[in-house]
Design goal:
The complex is a heterodimer of chains A (308) and B (102).
Chain A: E1 6-10, E2 16-18, H1 28-41, E3 55-57, H2 61-81, E4 88-91, H3 96-102, H4 108-126, E5 131-137, H5 141-150, E6 155-162, E7 165-171, H6 172-184, E8 189-192, H7 205-214, E9 227-228, E10 235-236, H8 239-251, H9 256-266, E11 271-274, H10 281-285, E12 293-296, H11 297-304
Parallel strand pairs in A: 1-4, 1-11, 4-9, 11-12
Antiparallel strand pairs in A: 2-3, 5-7, 5-8, 6-7, 9-10
Helix pairs in contact in A: 1-2, 2-3, 2-4, 3-4, 4-7, 7-8
Chain B: H1 6-23, H2 45-58, H3 65-74, H4 80-93
The chains are: A alpha/beta (308), B mainly alpha (102).
Chain lengths: 308, 102
């Protein structure tokens, strides 16, 4: 029984994962396997056969995105088949494609094609001299902006996850300099993300234009529920705005912190569910004012669901 | 500058032990001052941050995270005992923490 508004949040890919959760959740394994088979039939190769056993290391960036997408779509199908529907959904970073699938705006295989196009469109403009992303916790936006400007670094803040928690994209060598200086300036946590592209930064705009051209033939339909933009917190409710969001999502900074607050303002008391492989979104929410109720898929099922 | 009493120290200790027992899913009885936060119980810097937030709220502390970060660069914390000592200093000195260096 759905008592309070539920928000589906589709995460980006994890850096590394041991023993992916979910295999014990009734119905989830079947949904996952069916979608995996569909992906294989669509020509996707390199997917792991023993996904739910042992250590799942995310060495291949694109493959990781595909697996994360399939996993998130299986979560979506599991929840919806148990009559849980979101009042709003959100796609965190590259999680946008699973959010589009969940809302019924694109088909499962078109979601795979969007991911493939995004990666290959951005890659040529990002490989030389090498790009990446980091997260920095403990400094303010102004502190980070000052360090970037002072050292003339080719990197930008591309997401505010919580107060004093930021993601940055840019040239790898400059990100390493920033990481070192940020630690010296008092950053309590600095981590490199397992990506080689400068997602959500203006450096990716040329690639995003290419993505727009290459995906022009993919049909988008009206979503079953609003999907919130992480860029400006607007509610996307029509196919055109959904399509436009997939383009600007590639080269425009996000603000996940403001997005959570906006959703909470629209739906007080709502429950957020991380609909995908664990990436720490529930833990991140602990640093946001308002006592947000944010669950992993595993915990949500354990605490709230009576799956048949 | 807060006055640190035995009660405060006991409270901080209790909160730290309870926090790590829950977050790291270990028996509270197995945690002691010499427990290495990363090697022994698989803790991380995000947990440290979370703990700081808990103490900021509980004691209404006026301290910037970067002040703690700068102090931690010179005084790295690896064990539960060291972390409790640092939390006590944070509660006592707040944004004046770095003045201890002078």
């Amino acid at each position: 029984m759905q008592e309070t508004p539920i928000i589906f949040v589709f995460p980006a890919s994890p850096n590394e994962l041991t023993d992916p959760p979910g295999k014990n959740i009734p119905g989830f394994g079947d949904h996952f396997q069916t979608l995996l088979n569909t992906a294989l039939k669509s020509g996707l190769t390199g997917l792991p056969h023993n996904f739910f056993t042992g250590t799942f290391l995310t060495q291949d960036e694109l493959l990781t995105q595909f697996i994360s997408y399939i996993y998130s779509c299986a979560v979506s199908e599991t929840l919806r088949s148990n009559n849980f529907t979101p009042v709003v959904s959100a796609g965190y970073s590259m999680g946008i494609y699973a959010a589009l699938f969940d809302a019924g705006s694109v088909t499962f295989t078109d979601g795979i094609e969007l991911i493939r196009c995004a990666y290959h469109s951005l890659a040529p403009v990002s490989r030389d001299p090498g790009s990446g992303m980091i997260t920095v916790i403990g400094l303010s936006r102004d502190d980070l902006g000052y360090l970037i400007k002072q050292q003339k670094l080719r990197c930008r803040i591309i997401n505010e996850n919580a107060p004093f928690s930021f993601s940055l994209s840019g040239r790898s060598s400059d990100l390493r300099i920033l990481a070192d200086t940020a630690r010296n300036e008092g950053a309590l946590h600095v981590r490199f993300l397992g990506v080689s592209l400068p997602y959500h930064a203006a450096f990716a705009e040329t690639g995003a234009r290419k993505f727009m051209e290459e995906t022009a033939g993919i049909p988008f339909v009206r979503p079953a529920n609003p999907v919130i933009s992480l860029i400006d917190q607007s509610l996307l409710t029509d196919p055109e705005s959904m399509r436009a969001e997939t383009v600007r999502n590639l080269f425009t900074p996000l603000n996940w912190h403001h997005t959570m607050l906006k959703i909470h303002e629209l739906h007080p008391g709502c429950r957020f569910v991380e609909c995908g492989l664990p990436t720490g979104l529930p833990k991140n929410a602990k640093f946001v004012a308002g006592d947000l109720r944010f669950y992993s898929f595993q915990d949500f099922c354990g605490n709230e669901l009576m799956l048949s | 500058m807060a006055l640190i009493t035995d009660k405060t120290r006991d409270e901080v200790r209790e909160i730290v032990f309870d926090f790590f027992a829950e977050e790291c899913e270990v028996d509270k009885q197995t945690i002691h001052d010499g427990t290495n936060i990363i090697k022994d119980i698989d803790g991380d810097s995000l947990m440290f941050l979370e703990l700081i937030e808990i103490f900021k709220k509980k004691y209404n502390l006026d301290i910037e995270l970067k002040v703690i970060g700068k102090y931690a660069v010179k005084h790295p914390v690896t064990t539960i005992g060291q972390l409790i000592d640092m939390q006590m200093l944070i509660i006592e000195h707040e944004n004046h923490l770095l003045e201890l260096e002078r």
